[in-house]
Amino acid sequence: MVLVFAESPRGHFKKSAFEAVTYGKKVAELLGTDCVALTLGPVDDASVLGTYGAKRVLNLPDASLTHFDSQLYTQAIADACKQLGAQVVILGHTTTGKSVAGRLAVRLQGGLISGATGLPVLAGKNLLVEKTVFSGKAVAQYELSGAVNVISLMGNAVKPEQTGSAVASETLTLALNSSKIRVKEVKTQEGTVPLPEAEIVVSAGRGMKDPGNWGIVEDLATTLGATTACSRPVADSHWRPHHEHVGQTGIAIRPNLYIAIGISGAIQHLAGVNNSKVIVVINKDPEAPFFKAADYGVVGDLFEIVPRLNEAFKQFKAAN
Amino acid sequence: MKLLVCISQTPDTTAKISFNADNTEFNNAGVQFIMNPYDEWYALVRACELKEALGGTVTVINVGPAANETTIRKALAIGADDAVRIDADPKSAGFVAKQIAEYAKNAQFDLIFFGKETIDYNGSEVGAMVAEYLDLPFVSYASKLDLNGTVATLERDIEGGVEVLEVDLPFVLSAAKGMAEQRIPNMRGIMTARTKPLTEIPAVAFDGFEKVSQFTLPPAKAGVKLIDPNEMVELVRLLHEEAKVI
To answer: Where are the beta strands (DSSP E) in A272-314?
Structure first.
């Protein structure tokens, strides 16, 4: 049996949950077994996980799981795993997933790959799974040999697929310890897609010259339904909020389309974005190192090019 | 207060990545090694700041061969008081976590610091594993940490925002940007680091359930396709028809 932890911060599923269930269903097919989804804390509508391929949907509605605590989440997932006899546990490689995956592997005495980028292949009873390493500069194939193996799935590594129908969720009862973490406040940008989940990212750097110039970047992002990001110097100068900073010290992302505007492409920036499927670079300097990592490049004045590109996308959206 | 900072040694960000002939091991030849930046800039510096403000000791621990002692001495130069090296080739996250947990389990640390991840295997695994072995809370991606007696207040990066939380000592954390500013060791620090205690401890046996079976380098990019700045309609067409991303 394949157990998928479907993350639902503050009661709402994240895209990573649908990706994880889609992936879990495929792993279950590979192993000739079923995929069971587990949700923790009160959740809006757990039955939807059936449409992504979960055969059963279990919910542990304990209010103490509303806020994240790695100890409680680990206890709940590990207990469910033992109760159900899971061979594989899958979770998203999110800040939550990353804080739980290592704990789970220790508690279950199982194998672990964190940040898997593809489906497993069977090697006898073992699983071969790939992930990127060295900040995107190489790929490592791991062989997992545990009686239970834990896989955290990199965001945007699989596309959520709704192939099944909704399944009524069953309530699970487990005795949990009390949380040692007291969450005081959660500050998030509601209404925008968080960067690690975004399929299209429009990112800008020092070439913008002034934080007051960001309107053209935001307009382009709005047209594309994209999330905005920025380079380190921009975040360090407080031109843009810290959570928009992508790169080695910021966050690593792998969207389908990354549009870099006025960013030279230092190696530390590339380390956070070089696994994007397609990279478009707009820069006035033809020698900017970013062009070496780009699929498409436009050399010229971003203040002319970005509005023009926005118009072209608008025309395309109107026609398609 | 007793603080433990776990440091890893990684190839420099700019290092060229290559593997041995059968692609099963990282090729060290000609590679410059550094202290993992997140361990150094955020975890170690914040631990030193807390010690300087509140009193106590900072111990650094590394799982690695004798060659890592240059990196360990740097941590002592930045401000740690003493160091422990578990003498082993750090084969996997599970192996490293087991070694650190064995050392820490009877040592009564108030706080155990990690960087948010290492820049080689990018797993974010070891901190969570050590917390589980020691049955302690774990706060990952902490961008701010303040202590008031035995109560810590932290900010933690989450997708698209931050979480503010409180937790009592002892606990384990992984540090992200914002936690502290990079500190360059001064001459006095470098001189005193030479004589600070560095204890070598043998590793305990550990058989994990995962290993790297093969490394590959990603296929080289085909090369950039340059588009005339006046032809943005053409760029959109290529993104739709050729790249198929819109």
So the answer is: 278-283, 296-299
